[in-house]
Predict the 3D structure of the following.
Amino acid sequence: MPRLLTALTLAAMMSPLAACGSKSAQKGDASSAAAAPAATSSATAATNDERVTRADQARIMGDPNAKLWMLVVSDFQCPYCGQWERETAPQVIKEFVKTGQVRLAFLNFPLQQHANALPAAEAAMCAGAQGKFWEMHDRIFKSQEQWSPLPTSDAFFAGFARELALDLEQYNQCIGTHVMRPMIAADAERATRAGAGSTPTFFIGGQTIAGAEKIDAFRSAIAKATAALPK
């Protein structure tokens, strides 16, 4: 299966709404993380590549046969992203994802002003490598006000890894080697090129919703995008 961001085309028409604003996302230390496999065995590099592939697949929700994609460009520390996750996401999932109409995918866009956003993204993606992206995603967003002000958040997220019964040795290695950072950086770069400059931003077919809109905005956009699908 091709990686999500190389398999999809993003189109954007931005409109400023309730959102965490920034024109740039955290780059992380993607260069050093990407270079790490050169200093490791081929077996370790293969293992890391498998982790990234599993994480990429794990952040997709919905029927594989659904014709319409909804891409959620989000920052785990953004309060508006948290608002959307609490208030609107459950309705979108119930009405459109679970009914097989929409396939939803999460794209990381950790903003520079949010120091713990990149560690949160790494925690979610490393949990995704063990098939539990959404479980970690939900815990991170639900506890956003608790970990956001912390000087460092890794220990907080490690507690979730224990709750989820992840293989802690594999999880800690994934976090420690920053194997997910190149993918996180790629998420942000492609979303930026598509026009995302704030979080949350949503791409639905050829439409864009910027900001923590309510369910009616998504109903309208999904109806319009569905009508435009090839018959």
The two ends are 25 Å apart (CA to CA).
